[in-house]
Design a protein that fits this description.
The chain is α+β, with helices and mostly antiparallel strands. The chain is 25% helix and 29% strand. A hairpin with a 4-residue loop joins β14 and β15. α6 packs across α7 (226-234) and α7 (226-234) packs across α8. It binds fe (ii) ion (FE2). The site of fe (ii) ion has 4 residues, from loops.
């Protein structure tokens, strides 16, 4: 008997209701997809929209189906299960506060074999950052390191930026001032996904680093102040950067949620954000909420403090983990960091490929 859907009665897919076209476009095998890239060899929009399932069976962990257009094929039950249950190879995020131990990896070991690289990348995705020790403390080393993971994102600053105290800076990062917890470049489209900061020298008094799990702060607000959480997740703020040859602007919520209401992105940079002219009540609430978020992001409850020493790299998820530094005195010693950005797609993609 033909049907446009099947209901699985047993096994891991028990209770799943599977539509005929949904199944038809998931058929595996050389007849349906290119074996090299697994892309479909046909246009699924041209399939019969009234396609039916004539018969099916499950054997050896494969679902075999005969369709009304005469096509027969198989689909891996494991792959169906993973897709239906949104099971991803990228580890689930683990929310942390300052008491969690620092995620430190040795540059001499992480590229020794794929297991070590997997371990480092999995920690990165779980915690939103890793610290790498024992890289060469020389200029451009941050690019050598980054390119082993994914292509470097070139911006109007070039492939990398130098964090040194200099006269007439075009960004506060290039002063000796304290930098409170912030995310980088929320004014870009898209916002850079991953930042790497490499320490070539840190001989000044001051200039200690800090990281904060922005998702942990967002979770705290969700649990403890519904009014603030509501306005921070619903107000689009304009972030703006002005330089001699460009003016960059991008709008986002300070706490951006995904379709499931889970944390997607934190944008927090108090020197660059411009809230729209809302009514008095809303603005009042927004300013109180932003102040609260600022205080949480800079509190000892959430901040991990450490010193980025010569040869260390801090690699962090710029859409989740905020970073900052204490002020330093450039007259007491030289401080030079180099930074660059890479994207999540190449890094996630590398991890998925390593795990396959
Ligand atoms: Fe920064």
């Amino acid at each position: 008997m033909s049907s446009q859907e099947i209901i699985i009665k047993e096994g891991v897919l028990k209770g799943a209701i599977l539509h005929s076209l949904w199944l038809r476009e998931r058929l595996s095998g050389d007849e349906f997809v290119d074996p090299n890239n697994l892309q479909r060899l046909y246009e699924p929009s041209l399939l019969d929209e009234n396609l039916l399932i004539d018969s099916f069976s499950i054997k050896d962990n494969f679902l075999s189906i005969k369709f009304s257009d005469g096509v027969e094929g198989n689909i891996s039950v494991d792959e169906l299960y993973q897709e239906i249950n949104s099971i991803d190879a990228i580890p689930k995020k683990k929310i942390w506060e300052k008491n969690d131990s620092l995620q430190i990896f040795d540059n001499n070991k992480i590229f020794e074999n794929s297991e070590s690289l997997i371990q480092m990348l999995e920690s990165f995705y779980k915690y939103g950052y890793v610290i790498i020790e024992n890289t060469q403390a020389v200029e451009n080393e941050v690019l050598n390191f980054a390119e082993k993971i994914g292509p470097v994102r070139t911006t109007n600053w070039g492939k990398l930026f130098n964090v040194v105290s200099k006269p007439n800076p075009n960004d506060l990062a290039y002063t000796a001032l304290e930098l409170k917890s912030h995310s980088d470049n929320p004014y870009r489209k898209p916002v850079p996904g991953i930042q790497l900061l490499h320490c070539i020298a840190n001989e000044s008094i001051g200039g200690d680093s800090s990281l904060v799990d922005g998702f942990s702060v967002a979770e705290f607000l969700r649990n403890n102040n519904k009014e603030f959480y509501q306005i921070l997740t619903n107000t689009s703020v304009n972030f703006k950067f002005t330089d001699v040859d460009v003016i960059l602007e991008n709008k986002s919520k300070l706490i951006e949620l995904d379709d499931d209401g889970e944390f997607k992105q934190i944008s927090f940079s108090g020197r660059l954000d411009y809230v729209p002219l809302l009514n008095q009540e809303k603005l009042k609430t927004f300013y109180r909420a932003r102040k609260c978020m600022y205080e949480l992001c800079n509190s000892d409850q959430f901040k991990i403090k450490f010193r980025l020493s010569k040869g260390m790299i801090a690699m962090f998820d710029n859409l989740r983990t905020l970073h900052g530094r204490t002020k330093f005195d450039p007259n007491t010693g030289f401080r030079h960091l180099q930074g660059c950005y890479i994207d999540h797609d190449s890094t996630e993609g590398k991890l998925r490929r390593l795990l396959k």
